UniProtKB/TrEMBL annotation, chains A, B:
<protein>
    <submittedName>
        <fullName>LacI family transcriptional regulator</fullName>
    </submittedName>
</protein>
<dbReference type="GO" id="GO:0000976">
    <property type="term" value="F:transcription cis-regulatory region binding"/>
</dbReference>
<dbReference type="InterPro" id="IPR046335">
    <property type="entry name" value="LacI/GalR-like_sensor"/>
</dbReference>
<keyword id="KW-0804">Transcription</keyword>
<keyword id="KW-0805">Transcription regulation</keyword>
<dbReference type="GO" id="GO:0003700">
    <property type="term" value="F:DNA-binding transcription factor activity"/>
</dbReference>
<keyword id="KW-0238">DNA-binding</keyword>
<dbReference type="Pfam" id="PF13377">
    <property type="entry name" value="Peripla_BP_3"/>
</dbReference>
<dbReference type="InterPro" id="IPR000843">
    <property type="entry name" value="HTH_LacI"/>
</dbReference>
<feature type="domain" description="HTH lacI-type">
    <location>
        <begin position="7"/>
        <end position="61"/>
    </location>
</feature>
<dbReference type="InterPro" id="IPR028082">
    <property type="entry name" value="Peripla_BP_I"/>
</dbReference>
<dbReference type="Pfam" id="PF00356">
    <property type="entry name" value="LacI"/>
</dbReference>
<dbReference type="InterPro" id="IPR010982">
    <property type="entry name" value="Lambda_DNA-bd_dom_sf"/>
</dbReference>
Length: 337, 337
C-alpha cells in the first residue's frame, strides 16, 4: 500500500530548480517561458509523474472540463438501450477531448431540470449540457439560452427552426422511407403506418417519421395511405392494429414509429394471421426486442450522434459566438438476422 | 440575457460586513464563528444567491465530491437496460448525498481501466469508483486497493470472500430458487437449467444462479437434475436447448441464467413444440425482451443496488478505516403481464 507522496507544483519546481510560478507558466502559458527552462520543467514533470490537480486546473482556466447529461428515469424500458449507447459515446468522445461526462438524475419537470443545470454550470461542475428528449413545447432551450448556458441538444428544435443553439438529430423521415422501400422491394403493396397520437399535426419526432412513410407510399401511388395511432404502449398498439387488420383495406405491412408500437403490432399480426403468415411489421430504434421478435427496425447511429454533440460543444467552447449549427444524421435499416 | 454579476465570497463578505475569511469559515467550519456573525453571513449568502464554486470547494476540502462509474460498451444489448437503471439510481442517490456521477468509457482491458481510475482519482476528478461486472479472475480490486483507491463493487468478490473492500450484489441463487418454486407451483416436474460454460466450477455469477436452481430441484427430489450450457448468445442457446429437448429425459421447463439464454431457449421450445404447448422458459434480468416474449424473468433490484453502493461509499468517506462491508440484495420474480 505504501506509495511515494504524489508530486506537487512545489516538488516539480524544486526538482527543476525554478520557481513555482515558472512551473505554473509552463503548464498554462508555455510561450512565456524560455525554451531551455521549459524543457527542464517538462522533464521534471515527466520524471516526477506530476499530474496537475483537476480542481486547480479548473480554477485556473475557469472551466470545469466537464459536460452534463441527464440519467433518464425508465419509461417502458424498450428504448432504454439507445441511451446506454449514447452515454458510452459521450464518455468516449468526451475523453478524447478532455471532457468528463457528469450524469444528473432526471428531475420532476422542465423547470426543475433547468434549475439543476443552472446549478451545475454556475457552481463550476460542468461547462455545458447535452439536452436529450427535446420536443416542440420544450421550455428548456429558451431558459438555458436566457441563463447563458452552453448546450447542445440531441433532437431538433421542433417548430423553432431559427433557434440559436446547436443540435444533432437523426433523420427519422429517412428511416421510415428506408423501411417502406424495403417492404416494396419485398413485394408488399399496402404499407400502413402506426404512429403516435397527434403525428403530423405539428413538427415532432413522430411527424418526421410519419412524413418519410407518407412520401414513399404516396410516390409509389398504391392507393389511399392507411394509418393508425396509439400511445407508446404495446397493449394499446396491439388494439389499434387489431382494428386496422379487421378493416376491408387491411394492409400487408406496417411501419411503426417505435419498437414498442412494433411489439404491439406484431402481436396483433400474429393473432390475426392464425395459421397463415402474419403481416410484416417494421420497428424503429433497432432494440433487442425487435431483434428478439425477428423484426426489421430502423437503427439510429447513436454513437455518431454522441460524438457530433461533443464536436459541436468543443467547437462552441473555442468560438463562443459562432452561429448555431444543426446536424442531421441518417439512420439505417437493420434486418433480422 | 442580462444578469447581475454572480455573488462571490468578497461580495458576500462586503454585504455581511465581515472578512472574506469569516465567510469561508462559516461555510467550512461554522462552529468557529460566533452565532450572531454566522447568522448575518448566512443571511447575506441567502440574499445574494451566493453559491460556492465547486472547484474552490474541492480544493478547500480536498474532495472531488464525485464518484466515477464505467459507461459500458454494448455487448448483445439485451442486458443493457440493467445499466441504464443503475446509472439513474447512482445519479439520484449521489445527488441526495452531494456526490456527482462521472462516466468513463470502458477501457480496452482491466489494466487500462485501473490506469483510467487512477488518473480520475489522483487528479481530483473523483473520490471513488463504483466497479461493475466483477468476476473471480478480476484484477481490478487488488490493483485499486494497492493504489489506495476507494471503491465499491457491484458484484461479489468471487472466490475472495476475505477481500477487504465494500460491495453490493444481487443474490442470484435466491432468484433462480424463486423461478423453480414458481414452476413447481405451476405443475412443472422436470425443471432443467440453462447456464454458461463453467458454471459450478468456481465461484461466479453463473455458479450462484445455478446453485439456487439445484438446491430447490434437489430438495423436490424429482429425479436427476438436467442441465445444459451455452455461451451468452441466443443462437448458441437455441442449439443447446434443441439438443436438450431431443433427449429422452427432456424437461418440461427451463430456468435460464440470462434473458439472452432465455431467448434462445424460447425459440428452441417453440420449434420443438410444433402445434403443441412449448416448455416453459424463465429468464434472468427481466429485460424488455423477456416481457416481449411473455416470459417470466428474475428482476434485479438495480435501483436499490445503486443506492446501497452510494450508502457504502459515503459511509467509507466518513469512516475510512471501517471494516469492509458486503450487502446481498434479494431479487424478485417478474411474471409476464
Amino acid at each position: 500500500m505504501a506509495q511515494n507522496d504524489p508530486a506537487t507544483l512545489d516538488s516539480v519546481a524544486a526538482r527543476a530548480g525554478v520557481s513555482r510560478q515558472t512551473v505554473s507558466n509552463v503548464l498554462r502559458h508555455p510561450t512565456r517561458v524560455a525554451d531551455a527552462t521549459r524543457d527542464r520543467v517538462l522533464d521534471a514533470i515527466r520524471e516526477s509523474g506530476y499530474r496537475p490537480s483537476l480542481p486547480a486546473r479548473q480554477l485556473a482556466t475557469r472551466r470545469a472540463h466537464a459536460i452534463a447529461v441527464r440519467a433518464e428515469r425508465q419509461q417502458d424500458g424498450i428504448s432504454g438501450l439507445v441511451l446506454d449507447a449514447f452515454y458510452h459515446g459521450l464518455a468516449e468522445a468526451g475523453q478524447h477531448n478532455g471532457l468528463r461526462v457528469l450524469l444528473y438524475p432526471q428531475p420532476e419537470d422542465e423547470a426543475a431540470e433547468v434549475a439543476t443545470i443552472d446549478e451545475l454550470v454556475h457552481t463550476g461542475a460542468a461547462d455545458a449540457v447535452v439536452l436529450t428528449a427535446t420536443s416542440a413545447d420544450d421550455e428548456r432551450p429558451a431558459h438555458l439560452r436566457d441563463n447563458g448556458t452552453t448546450f447542445c441538444a440531441f433532437g431538433r428544435p421542433w417548430g423553432h427552426d431559427d433557434a440559436p443553439h446547436d443540435w444533432v438529430d437523426v433523420d427519422g423521415a429517412v428511416g421510415t422511407s428506408l423501411a417502406v422501400r424495403h417492404l416494396l422491394d419485398s413485394g408488399r403493396r399496402s404499407i400502413a403506418y402506426l404512429g403516435w397520437p397527434g403525428d403530423g399535426a405539428e413538427p415532432s419526432t413522430g411527424s418526421d417519421r410519419r412524413r418519410g412513410w407518407l412520401e414513399v407510399v404516396g410516390h409509389a401511388a398504391l392507393g389511399a395511405p392507411v394509418e393508425a395511432h396509439s400511445l407508446n404502449d404495446a397493449a394499446a398498439a396491439q388494439a389499434a392494429v387489431a382494428e386496422l387488420l379487421g378493416r376491408p383495406d387491411a394492409p400487408d405491412a406496417i411501419v411503426c414509429a417505435s419498437d414498442t408500437l412494433a411489439l404491439g403490432a406484431h402481436r396483433a399480426a400474429l393473432a390475426a394471421a392464425g395459421a397463415g403468415a402474419p403481416v410484416t411489421v417494421v420497428g424503429f430504434d433497432a432494440t433487442p426486442v425487435a431483434a428478439a421478435l425477428g423484426l426489421a427496425s430502423v437503427a439510429q447511429p447513436i454513437d455518431q450522434v454522441a460524438h457530433l454533440c461533443i464536436d459541436l460543444l468543443t467547437g462552441r467552447f473555442e468560438t463562443p459566438d459562432r452561429p448555431a449549427r444543426g446536424l442531421l444524421v441518417p439512420p439505417v435499416l437493420r434486418l433480422p438476422s
